[in-house]
Specification:
The structure is a single chain. By secondary structure, this protein is of the alpha/beta class. It has eleven helices and eight strands. It has an eight-stranded mixed sheet, with helices on both faces. Helix 2 crosses helix 3. The termini are far apart.
């Protein structure tokens, strides 16, 4: 993939507040989305899926600012994981293995010239963030985990929640689950379960706009799903040294709060914040509050202060808001 020219890069930023460019790694390139260029502490964001892309961090206008609100204070960097969206796949053995995705975090960090990074992981991205923090503890200053769980137990709650979907959605989903997974089938499965992801009810055109703005890779999803069949991070979590902020939406029916709260007692550096009008995407449904809480944590949650607590005081809105 060719490098994006400086002119195109700047034009993208001037038009949307989000700049995109290709970052060359070893044998392939990844698509970066950046906002808040030149702002404070960089925040490297790892999207979910597996097999989706990072576009939903900066959603269509009808969904509000997303992480762009946080970019007022921080340099937000989100990249499409290998094989996803605008990123390539290197010609190596098992190119889409979970370990390769973890390696990419360090490759991106080094390519950007960052000594250490604050990591934001959303959904599947929380698995990558934690694995990286365990493997490269000196390179992680902060962890922000959204919509994640320490093991696959959350799937029991998800299957229960699917039974609460409208009957038409359940019927379509059952038919889709019988089909071979393709990019389009992946997209349609996500669309039919979208009510489980949001606190508010989405109009059909809003749901379609959200899904249409996102890329789906069945190849990546299939490859990672094999590695995730038996994942259990709980035994290793006490070894995580970076201060962690666990963010969850009370209305999340995909990874329900009771599973996200299982980080308590094992992720010893963690603090917890609940968003009461959010589902799986608090940074989309409550972007202002999410930005304030996250900025406060990044400014004050250093290693010396990290401790296991259940909640964090909600910071006041900044005076320049």
């Amino acid at each position: 993939m060719p490098l994006v020219t400086t002119a195109v890069y700047l034009r993208s930023f001037m038009t949307t507040g989000v700049a995109t460019r290709q970052l060359e790694l070893d044998g392939f390139s990844v698509l970066l989305r950046e906002a808040g260029i030149g702002a404070g502490l960089p925040l490297l964001c790892l999207h979910g899926g597996p097999g989706m892309d990072a576009a939903y961090f900066f959603p269509p206008d009808r969904f509000g600012p997303g992480l762009s609100e946080l970019a007022r204070h921080h340099h937000i960097i989100a990249y499409d994981q290998r094989g996803c969206g605008g990123s390539g796949v290197p010609d190596v053995e098992q190119p889409l293995a979970l370990s390769r995705h973890v390696d990419d975090i360090d490759a991106v960090r080094q390519a950007l010239g960052l000594d250490s990074v604050a990591l934001l992981g959303h959904s599947f991205g929380t698995v990558l963030a934690l694995l990286y923090a365990l493997r490269h503890s000196d390179n992680v200053s902060h962890l922000i985990l959204i919509g994640g769980a320490p093991d696959r137990g959350f799937m029991d709650g998800y299957r229960e929640a699917v039974q609460e979907l409208p009957r038409d959605n359940q019927a379509r989903l059952a038919a889709l689950n019988d089909e071979q997974l393709t990019d389009d089938v992946f997209r349609q499965r996500f669309l039919n379960t979208l009510p489980l992801y949001f606190h508010r009810s989405l109009e059909p055109e809003d749901a379609e706009a959200f899904v249409s703005a996102t890329s789906f890779s069945a190849r990546v999803n299939r490859s990672i799903a094999t590695d995730l069949q038996t994942y259990d991070l709980a035994p290793a979590l006490p070894n995580v040294r970076a201060p962690a902020l666990v963010v969850y939406g009370e209305s999340d029916r995909v990874v329900q709060p009771r599973y996200q709260l299982q980080f308590r007692g094992s992720l010893l550096t963690s603090r917890f914040v609940a968003f009461f009008e959010s589902g799986h995407f608090p940074f989309l449904e409550e972007p202002d509050a999410f930005a304030r809480v996250t900025h406060y944590f990044l400014e004050h949650g250093d290693r010396s202060q990290a401790q296991p607590v259940v909640s964090i005081d909600f910071p006041p809105a900044p005076e320049d808001a």
